[in-house]
Give the backbone structure.
Amino acid sequence: MRIAVVQLAYGDDEPFDARVDRVAGIVAGLSGHDLVVLPELWAPTGFGYQGWADEAQPLDGPWSRAMADAARSASVVLHAGSFVEELDDPGPDGHDLANTSLVLGSGGSTLAVYRKIHRFGFGAGEPRLMEAGTDVVVVDLPDGIGGTVRTGLSTCYDLRFPELYRRQQEEGAELFVVPAAWPAARVGHWTLLGRARAIENQAVVVQGNTGGTHAGTAMGGFSQVVAAMGEVLGEVAHAGEAVLSVDVDLAATTEYRRAFPVLPDRRL
């Protein structure tokens, strides 16, 4: 399975619409990949809380249509990262926004929607403005050789909560895709936790982060793809903009689980 992780780097001076057009162009140039992954909240920025309400869109709004067009143009499955979704109605916390990820098929159709379960901000930021997602999402994605791979969806701060990934593994996930807006101050946690989630679940982990500076916060970069045994198959070893292209042998995950059957030994 050939996977492209697009690590976007930008500052607050790049307008929302200009960035959407630029990123759509990047995606359109990545034909030949089976899956393309974009970061979390790359259009409104991960730390630009003050602009989220103004930049929110419905699930079928201009942002998602632009991403569907890009997926169609490149003929790739696109994990479009996440955007600020304007919900039809406020949720239990009284908010009408969500941090929502969208996975699109090579024809532009929607394959999966994931709303971020664990909101970052310790009472500010996401918890103050956004509803928490409630659904654990696992989707079958084309593997590039005529089959599918069970894929668990999560976003950024979710990576700190291993029980989510165990739930996804129990639902058959062999691949985890994690878009993020993870800051430079804790980027060591980002890479370490990705390897931990891979090792403990014997699953491939694809992590796509942002670079640049958002609302004064330096972003961490260091996107990576980690094999089920914890080996880093490819990484972007900086916080600049880059496209990481990695060929993943999914059969190796199946063989590793067979040869080293840790998962059936769980007692709790």
In short: The mean pLDDT is 97. DSSP finds seven helices and 15 strands in the chain. The chain has one domain: 2-265. Helices lie at 16-28, 52-55, 62-74, 126-129, 162-170, 187-201, 250-259.
